[in-house]
TrEMBL record, chain A:
Cofactors: FAD
Species per Swiss-Prot/TrEMBL record: Amycolatopsis samaneae
Domain Acyl-CoA oxidase/dehydrogenase middle: from-to ranges: 122-211
Keyword annotations of the record: FAD, Flavoprotein, Oxidoreductase
Gene Ontology MF terms: oxidoreductase activity
Domain Acyl-CoA dehydrogenase/oxidase N-terminal: 14-118
Name of this chain's protein: Acyl-CoA dehydrogenase family protein
InterPro entries: Acyl-CoA_Oxase/DH_mid-dom, Acyl-CoA_Oxase/DH_mid-dom_sf, AcylCo_DH-like_C, AcylCo_DH/oxidase_C, AcylCoA_DH/ox_N, AcylCoA_DH/ox_N_sf, AcylCoA_DH/oxidase_NM_dom_sf
Lineage: Bacteria, Bacillati, Actinomycetota, Actinomycetes, Pseudonocardiales
Domain of life: Bacteria
TrEMBL record, chain B:
All residue ranges annotated as the Carrier domain in the record: 1-78
Descriptive protein name: Phosphopantetheine-binding protein
InterPro entries to which the protein is assigned, alphabetical: ACP-like_sf, PP-bd_ACP
UniProt source species: Amycolatopsis samaneae
Pfam families: PP-binding
Amino acid sequence: MSLLAEPAVGARSRASFREFVDTAVAPYADRFDRDQKIPAEVLRQVAGRGYWGAVLPATDGGSGMDMVTLGVLHEEIGRGCSSLRSLLTVHTMAAWALRRWGTTEAREHWLPGLASGDTLGAFCLTEPAAGSDISLVATTAVRDGDDYVLDGVKQWITGGQVADVFLVFAKTERGLSAFVVDADNPGVRCTPVENALGTRASMLAEVLFAECRVPARALLGAEGAGRMVATAALDLGRYSVAAGCVGILQACLDASVAHTAGREQGGVLLREHQLVRRMISDMVTGVQAARALVRRAGELKDGRDPETLTATWIAKYFASTQAMRAATDAVQLHGASGCADGHPVNRYFRDAKVMEIIEGSSQIQQLTIAEHAYETASGGHS
Amino acid sequence: MPSDARGQIRDFITGKFPGVEFADGDDIFTLGFATSLFAMQLVMFVEKTFGFEIGNEDLEMANFRSVDAMAALVDRNLDAVSAGR
C-alpha cells in the first residue's frame, strides 16, 4: 500500500530487507522483547546481510549504502523489531563518526570489525544529569602523557550489554571531546538495565568509566570537537529513529487492518464501523507522510545539503508522534487482546513511546523546528 | 554567488541569519546567533561547496568560528588537494 511510488532500485532493496525481516525478525520479536535480548544468531544474520556496515564505504569493508536506502533498511527492521533497529542505530552512529573523524590508526584498528559486524559499537553520551542538554556532561577525560584517562558514568546506553566498542563523550580542558573506547578496557564496567518501558531487547546498560586509560589515537577530531561529533552522529541517529518510526506505523497499520477485517462484533465486522475507518485512515496518512519526510531527509543527506539537519528534525518529530498515535489506536482497535503481554501491538505501543524521547525529545524538536521557522520567516533559506 | 570562498561563506551565513551584522573576523558563536547545529551545517556547506571532506585534524570549532577562519580552512585544503596530498 503506497501512495508514493518508490524508485525501482529502492523497491528492490525494500523487497530484500522485507524478506529478511519477515522470516528472521518479526516472527520472533515478541520473544526477543520477553527475553530482553536479541540472540547472537540474529546479530550474526544481520552481519551476513552486511547491515552493520551499511553506511561504510566498500573501501572500509562496508556496504556503501546511500542514505535513502539506509532509511528503507531501518524502516523495515523497525517494522519488525524496534530493539534490533535501535542496535543498528547506535552501531551505525559510532561507525560513521569513527569513519569520518577517527585518526588513521583508529580507523584501521576498528573499522574492519565494525563494517563486518564482528565488532559492535554503541554511543555513550547520556548521563544521570545530562540528557537533552549535553553541556551538562560530567564525565572527564584528562590528558596524561600520550593517554587520556576517563572517569564518569553513562546511562541508558543502547547495546551496552553486547557492544565491543563505545563512542564516548567526555569533558577535556578544551571542552567536550569524543573518544573511542574498547568495552574490554579494564577501566570499563557495564551493568545491564532491565525492564525498561520499551525497546526491551536493545540490551541497555549503564557504563562506568573508572580511571579508564585510552591512547591519544582514540580521540575523534580535535580536543573540544565533541559537540560537533555528537551533533553529526545524533543527526544520523535521529534519521534512523525516524525511519524506524515509519516501520512502527506500518506495523500498526498492518495489524489493525488484519484484525478489524476479520473480527466481528454486534453482527458486523469491525471494519464496517466508521469510527474504526477513521483510525485506519489516520494510520495510512501518517505512514505515507512520515515515509515521505524521511525520504526527503535522506535525499538531502545524499546530496550533502546542510538543510538535511532541519529536515531530519522534522521527520523524526512527525514520525515519532504519528507512531505513538498509531500505536495507541492499534491497541484500542485490538481491545483487551491488544493489552495482553506478548501481543505485538502491546510492544509497538511501548516502543513508540520511547521514540518520542530518544535522539531529541518531541519538546526539544518543537523548539528547534520553531526556531528554524523564525529564521526562515525573517528572510533566510527555506 | 561570489566566486571567492570568503564571499560564498559570508553569503551562506547571512542567508541563514539575514538580520545579523558581523565582520569577517568576528566569532559568530560568541555573538550568540550560531549554535552547534549551525556548526554542523557549516561543515556540510564547506564540504559540499568546496569539494573536500573535513578530516580528523580539521574538525575543531576554531576552524568554523569566523569567516576568516573558514576561508583559511578552505584555502589550506584546496592547496593540499592541488598539491596531490
